[in-house]
Amino acid sequence: MKYIYVIFLLLSSLLFANEVEQNQLENKQPEVNQPEQKQQEDLMDINNSFITKYEYGKMLYNNPRGIGCNSCHGNDARGRKMVDFKHQLFDKKVYNCTLIIPDIKSIDYETFSQKVNTKKNINLKFEKEQVCEKLIHNANVMPTYFLVEEEIEAIFYYIQNMKK
Q: What's the pLDDT band for 17 if we cut at 50, 70, 90?
């Protein structure tokens, strides 16, 4: 009988300790609904990380997963003329076209994020004489990177804060 009582006490104390531990774990992770608290946590994460958000963004800008953004948009993200080419239609008319890579230094985040992960260009209507514009648009030269939101934010942060 004495052994049964001791076993009962041990089991009770184990269950109680387990319940206390579970409550402590639940209390350690409060929900964050306040934007200020979220910003403070983000700053803490950035300050305690091995690499800064700026450095991470620079690394991704230069080598995201394949062709770096700098290959087309330039080291200053201001864009540039990529190539001039001629396009001839069936009616033998020749069009002199130029592929110009856009400036992404002054773009808003929503547009930037959408363009980075879009697999295909949106459908646009072109006038008959806009042969070059239609050709370049349909070529969809912007690669798709499959970046997560944190990576897109880091690249955007780098572009917005890069030295002039």
A: low
Q: Tens of pLDDT along 39-58?
A: 555 554 555 568 899 999 99
Helix (H, G, I), strand (E, B) or coil at 91: coil
Strands, E assignment, the chain: 80-88, 94-101
pTM of the model: 0.64
SS3 20: helix
Tokens (6 digits) for 15: 């269950």
Q: How many CB atoms neighbour CB 6 within 10 A?
A: 10
Task: For residue 51, give the amino acid letter.
Answer: I
d(CA 62, CA 51): 15
CA dihedral 66, 71, 74, 80 (to 10 degrees): -130
CA distances from 27 to 22, 32, 132 (A): 9, 13, 61
Place of tokens 């990380």: 49
